[in-house]
Design goal:
about 325 residues; alpha/beta; binds acetyl coenzyme *A; 10 helices; globular
């Protein structure tokens, strides 16, 4: 048995922050941001919205689509690096909001690779027989970890959550490839605010070597895609769509070119939401799915990269 996606869901904050809005707080402009990243706006939490509320709403929408009740879930696996809660874990907070009384719940931190890692971990739980029905959520509010005085990074991030419900089924193809390289972890860092020796405030925001990450993503993503394609004995063109981490449109264009593929195989929504870390892939998957643009039998790959450094991919066939 492997997990079949029976529902997708997403939830993003109501408040929209445009590139022009950002140009009022840092020395930047709409043209620069669009050209270098493809980002036009991002959604940022306000009022009562939190990582937990976005995650719970995305989860509920995925359950509704799947036509199952929250009490049928036996696991909630949630990926986040920026939750408003540490204890209880975000997955437990979601469990409480949606009433998934029979689920065992835990969080996973693999930064922007988190949703793909959580999806693969959920598949492993199902394949081992440990679980039958798993809600996998990617939820991040990076606005909280963003240094809004740093123009080289604050333009890149947004808030949002996405989810899928996986249910055990026969004959659902699944394959994965995942990697981590802690030696290169210095390229994106963020210190905890909860240490005894509280670090200077700027260390508690994300610090990133943009050029290094750009190079890392444009080499490791094609490599891991080829690794996965080899595992499933397929050529790049046999995949119907590649759902890549939405960090920067230019990175996706370079990857498409390196794979020798038309950009039309790479759905994108970075213009609207920017980089929502664990949220990007499930938000995109839900958007494309709800438009009816994923057809039964289609072969898909999800692939992400991020802090760690970490990168990974999953192969699936839409059922
Ligand atoms: N507005 C205007 N000018 C800017 C801005 C800005 N927002 N930011 C930087 N600049 C300037 C720089 O100061 C520099 O000026 P200079 O030439 O006078 O020194 C110039 O623009 C070019 O800067 P670069 O850093 O060379 O710009 P680049 O084309 O590399 O784009 C960017 C920067 C967008 C950050 C790119 O490197 C990138 O996207 N990297 C990947 C980042 C990423 O994906 N991070 C997510 C990781 S996932 C996770 O786990 C969080």
């Amino acid at each position: 048995m492997t997990g079949k996606i029976i529902g997708t869901g997403a939830c993003v904050p109501d408040k929209v922050v445009s590139n022009d809005d950002l140009s009022k707080i840092v020395d930047t402009n709409d043209e620069w941001i669009r050209e270098r990243t493809g980002i036009v706006r991002r959604h940022i939490i306000s009022g009562e919205e939190t990582t937990v509320t976005l995650a719970a709403e995305a989860g509920k929408r995925a359950l509704n689509m799947g036509g199952i009740a929250a009490k049928e879930l036996d696991m909630i696996l949630l990926s986040s690096i920026s939750s408003n809660v540490i204890l209880p874990c975000t997955a437990c907070a979601v469990q409480r909001l949606i009433g998934a009384v029979n689920a065992v719940c835990y969080d996973l931190n693999a930064a922007c690779s988190g949703f793909v890692f959580a999806y693969n971990a959920a598949q492993a739980h199902i394949m081992s027989g440990m679980c039958n029905t798993v809600l996998v959520i990617g939820a991040d509010c990076l606005s909280d970890l963003t240094n809004w005085k740093d123009r080289s990074s604050c333009i890149l991030f947004g808030d949002g959550a996405g989810a899928v419900v996986l249910q055990a089924a026969e004959g659902v193809p699944f394959a994965f490839a995942m990697h981590s390289d802690g030696q290169r972890g210095g390229s994106i860092t963020c210190q905890s605010r909860n240490q005894n020796n509280c670090p200077p405030l700027e260390e508690t925001y994300m610090k990133m070597d943009g050029k290094e990450i750009f190079k890392f993503a444009s080499t490791k993503v094609p490599a891991v895609l080829h690794e996965l394609l080899e595992k499933v004995s397929m050529k790049p063109e046999e995949i119907d769509a590649y759902f890549l981490h939405q960090a920067n449109g230019r990175i996706i264009e370079i990857i498409a070119k390196k794979m020798g593929l038309d950009l039309s195989k790479f759905p994108m929504n970075v213009a609207e939401y920017a980089n929502t870390s664990s949220g990007t892939i499930p938000i995109l998957l839900d958007e494309v799915n709800r438009k009816g643009n994923i057809l039964k039998g289609q072969k898909l790959i999800m692939c992400s990269f991020g802090a760690g450094l970490s990168w990974g991919a999953a192969y699936l066939e839409w059922q």
